[in-house]
Every structure is written in C-alpha cells, then in structure tokens.
Design goal:
alpha+beta; 4-stranded mixed β-sheet; 49% helix
C-alpha cells in the first residue's frame, strides 16, 4: 500500500515535523512493513547527546486514518476497573494466591507507573528533553496489567512483587536511572542493573 500523498523528504529520507493528515505511531518499522501500512520517518528536532553532539529526534508517522494495532489492548470493551478485576482473577487462578494479595499487586503496579511518570515529568519541568518527552509518552501507554499468559508468567508477577516489597530493588532502579542521566547506562539497561545488584531488606 502506498501513501495517498507523497511527502517531501530530506537527503536522509526524513520528513520535517508531522504534516497535516499524518500522526505519530508507536509501531516499529518492522510492524508497519508487515502490515503494509504507509509511513515516513519524521524529524521532530534535535537534542544534544552526552558528548555535546546534536542528534535528530526521529519518530515514525502514519496517515491519521490508520487504525491501532489489533490485540494491543485486550478487553478494550471493559472499564479500567473491570480490566483490573479480570487481571486479579487470572492471577488468583494461576497461582492460588489470595484475592487480597492479587489486588495488592495490581494496585502496586498501577501506583508504580504513576510514580515513574511523575518523576519523569518533574525532571522535564526543570530541564526539557525531547528524548525524555518520548519516554514519558511511551510510559503513559504502557499497560502495567498486561495479560498474564500462563502459570509461569503469573509466578514471575509474584516474584517481581516480592522484589519490589521485600528488597532494595526500587532503590537500585533509582540508582540505575541516575546512571542513565550521567551517561553510564542506557535506559534499557536499568532493569538488568537493578536485578544484578538488589539485596533483601534487613
């Protein structure tokens, strides 16, 4: 499928900004190609990396008529409260944990997402970063209560909650984010850093 109107691109094949009739998408190039969705790479501006060099901020854009990926938001006909209850019931079914404990985990996961967003937005208010703006949007679209696939996945949810509540894992996550700000780690390495260094609470 070809775009209904061809956009002007620079020598790198990028469009300047997001033109009328187009919108930003979180789908990857691989996903767009597989679904035969017309797209462009758009440059939203520039920011400086840790070496002081200017680097472009690039996103994928698609026609505004493009529908979201099917299956990316399960139970979309349910309210947020109903989706949470369904998630809790499935966790109970697959792990035999109590309903109260499942509810505690769900609430903690939702609260953690809001905490991360608040922290990022506080930093953004002090010093604006286009890259951080993208991270904030990405985190906002993350579903903390994504569908539990099987019993193994359910058990991993319990273990993750134990790490957050009975160890210094969250502190190590915070340290990891500081290392990202100092250019020592990348954002994708934060969880690995925390998992390799956390210890049980005394």
């Amino acid at each position: 499928m070809k775009p209904t109107s061809r956009l002007e691109t620079n020598r790198y094949g990028n469009v300047a900004g997001i033109p009328d009739g187009w919108k930003k998408t979180n789908m990857s190039v691989k996903q767009l190609v597989a679904r035969k969705i017309p797209f462009y790479r758009a440059c939203l501006g520039f920011e400086r990396n840790k070496y002081g060099e200017k680097t472009p901020v690039i996103v994928n854009i698609v026609p505004v008529t493009t529908k979201p990926m099917t299956g990316s938001k399960p139970n979309c006909h349910l309210t947020p409260e109903e989706r949470q209850k369904a998630w809790e019931r499935r966790l109970v079914k697959l792990t035999w944990c109590s309903e109260a404990y499942a509810h505690e985990i769900a609430e903690a996961k939702l609260a953690y997402k809001e905490k991360v967003i608040a922290k990022l937005e506080a930093k953004q208010a002090q010093v604006y970063s286009a890259k951080r703006a993208q991270t904030i949007e990405r985190v906002k679209h993350v579903n903390p209560l994504r569908r539990i696939i099987n019993a193994e996945h359910a058990q991993a949810v319990l273990e993750a909650h134990e790490r957050h509540t009975r160890t210094d894992y969250d502190q190590k996550l915070a340290e990891g984010h500081e290392l990202v700000d100092n250019g020592i780690l990348t954002y994708t390495q934060v969880k690995t850093y925390a998992r390799n260094t956390y210890k049980p609470n005394k």
